[in-house]
Structures are given as C-alpha cells and as structure tokens.
Amino acid sequence: MELEIDIEDPWPEGAWEDLATRAAEALARVAPELANPRLSASLLFTSDAEVHTLNREWRDRDKPTNVLSFPMLTAEEVQDLAAEGPPELFGDIALAFETCAREAAEKLVPLEHHAAHLIVHGLLHLAGHDHETSAADADAMEALETKALAIIGIADPYEPQDQ
C-alpha cells in the first residue's frame, strides 16, 4: 500500500511519516488484503478544527473526533483487487492532533503509540471493517489492531495501562 502523507500544524516535529509507514506495513501482515501494492491512501495529520469541519460536512456530526476515514472502495473491491494494474485510491484518513494528544495523555501512552493505533484503525475502516455494526465485528477489528501494533512494539491499546 502506498501512503500519501501530509502533516499540518499543530502536529509537532516528529517521524510521523515513518510511523505511518510502519503501521501500514504491520497491518498488511495481519490483513493480507491491505498488502496489495495497488492500494493508495492519503493520510492527513491535522487539527481538531479541520477534522471538526470534515466531520460536519461529510458525516453530519458537528464535533471533532480523533480519526476520520473516507473509503473510496467497498470491502469487496478491496478483497477482489488484483495485484497487477494501475494504482487504486483506497481512501482518505484524517487525524486530529488535539484530540489524539488528549486521549494519549488520558491513556498514559506516548502520542506516537496512540497515533499509530488510530492510523491502523482508520486503515481498517477503509477496508470495510466497522466496530459499530456488532460486538463480533468490534472484537475482530480490535484483534487485527492489537496484532498489527504488536508487530511494531506497541502495547495492546485495549488493555488498561498501569497508572
């Protein structure tokens, strides 16, 4: 999978592109349909204000959120995409800095770990996974997230951290 990454203020200096690439590569190891070299996604590291605007305009939800995913392919199209051929736009993801930073602090985890989790989470949404459809779907999505994050040395985000 190819990622086009744009990092805006207020995200601090950091290895965000490397983190996103490592997260996507790890996810491709546990969700093989995402290893397709034809898939292309854009990832925007932006502000709560921008995510709030996107959420209001595209989702009719008048609030910021930590991550938004805008799929361009159905789950079936992702599954059935041949490995050979031109690039296919998989979708767009936007991460909101202030919400991500606040949640990381609340969870007592590094911002980089929480951002990696949200990138994996967003990519799974692009692939058609949805934790809101059923408890079984939520469990399956969480299992993939946990496995992908473990590959890059990040603890299970669903286990309580020692406080």
From TrEMBL:
<keyword id="KW-0963">Cytoplasm</keyword>
<comment type="function">
    <text>Single strand-specific metallo-endoribonuclease involved in late-stage 70S ribosome quality control and in maturation of the 3' terminus of the 16S rRNA.</text>
</comment>
<dbReference type="GO" id="GO:0006364">
    <property type="term" value="P:rRNA processing"/>
</dbReference>
<dbReference type="InterPro" id="IPR002036">
    <property type="entry name" value="YbeY"/>
</dbReference>
<protein>
    <recommendedName>
        <fullName>Endoribonuclease YbeY</fullName>
        <ecNumber>3.1.-.-</ecNumber>
    </recommendedName>
</protein>
<keyword id="KW-0862">Zinc</keyword>
<dbReference type="GO" id="GO:0004222">
    <property type="term" value="F:metalloendopeptidase activity"/>
</dbReference>
<keyword id="KW-0540">Nuclease</keyword>
<feature type="binding site">
    <location>
        <position position="121"/>
    </location>
    <ligand>
        <name>Zn(2+)</name>
    </ligand>
</feature>
<keyword id="KW-0255">Endonuclease</keyword>
<comment type="similarity">
    <text>Belongs to the endoribonuclease YbeY family.</text>
</comment>
<keyword id="KW-0698">rRNA processing</keyword>
<dbReference type="InterPro" id="IPR020549">
    <property type="entry name" value="YbeY_CS"/>
</dbReference>
<dbReference type="Pfam" id="PF02130">
    <property type="entry name" value="YbeY"/>
</dbReference>
<keyword id="KW-0690">Ribosome biogenesis</keyword>
<dbReference type="InterPro" id="IPR023091">
    <property type="entry name" value="MetalPrtase_cat_dom_sf_prd"/>
</dbReference>
<dbReference type="GO" id="GO:0004521">
    <property type="term" value="F:RNA endonuclease activity"/>
</dbReference>
<keyword id="KW-0378">Hydrolase</keyword>
<feature type="binding site">
    <location>
        <position position="125"/>
    </location>
    <ligand>
        <name>Zn(2+)</name>
    </ligand>
</feature>
<dbReference type="GO" id="GO:0008270">
    <property type="term" value="F:zinc ion binding"/>
</dbReference>
<keyword id="KW-0479">Metal-binding</keyword>
<dbReference type="GO" id="GO:0005737">
    <property type="term" value="C:cytoplasm"/>
</dbReference>
<feature type="binding site">
    <location>
        <position position="131"/>
    </location>
    <ligand>
        <name>Zn(2+)</name>
    </ligand>
</feature>
